[in-house]
């Protein structure tokens, strides 16, 4: 049998979750990709001015070595934390979060004062 080429085993820290933030009329909606996690693996907290998403993805270690030794490992494991500044006008008592199919969704309802739709400003040319 030929010799197997030597490849490094890479262990990368858990990645910071990627986010989508959508500013809607009545709320700000935040979605974070957290693949491989369950709702029990992450934590969402709010303070006066920021939302913190944290958690940990634990490495699944195969025992027994039936599959052979690890050749390349690119999956990310470990703890993560992401802090997001809250916009003004969020009703912090009504913030809620749900988790489905590896996506954390946080609804940040706006206070009634912050729910005013944008007003179009006419731009005029100057002669």
TrEMBL record:
Signal peptide residues on this chain, from the entry's feature table: none
Pfam families: HSP20 (PF00011)
Domain of life of the source: Bacteria
InterPro entries: A-crystallin/Hsp20_dom, HSP20-like_chaperone, Small_HSP
Start and end residues of each SHSP domain: 10-126
SUPFAM superfamilies according to UniProt: HSP20-like chaperones
Similarity comment: Belongs to the small heat shock protein (HSP20) family.
Protein name: Molecular chaperone IbpA, HSP20 family
